[in-house]
Hints:
There is one protein chain. This protein has helices at residues 9-24, 69-77, 102-116, 129-135, and strands at 33-38, 45-50, 53-55, 58-62, 79-84, 87-95, 141-146. By secondary structure, it is an alpha+beta fold. It has a single domain, classed as Electron Transport, Fmn-binding Protein, Chain A (Pnp Oxidase, Chain A), CATH 2.30.110. The mean pLDDT is 93.
Amino acid sequence: MAEYRRPDWFTRNVMNPALELLIGLGVSAFGSRVLVVRGRRSGKEYTTPVNPLTFEGARYLVAPRGETQWVRNIRASGEGELRLGGKRERIRVREVPDEEKEPILRAYLKKWKWEVGQFFQGVSHDSPAEEVRGIAGLHPVFRIEGE
């Protein structure tokens, strides 16, 4: 079962708003986007910066912090929107089962470990298979299916 690793004050109040502002202006670091999802109870629109991964011809959203609110919301609706500047891409997603996550998590860690490695219990892209499989349940992964 995935846990939720809440962002600290600096991340919540400085980094994420700064990233959202830059992405909103069309400046993306390594493919980052703003994910927009509807609240599963409130219906309110929520935003958060994410690092989509392209791997073997498919795109994925990985939740380095575990069972975040965006995970719960997109799991409930199965859809959201990715934004970069004025570009808006409606997406539908399918959650990836734990037994299929190992190569996706390896690719994600290879690209993004410098930013999110602290949330992966010391596991990296070149860790043994059993270690990567051991953390799979802690990190929800969604395949982006498109609109």
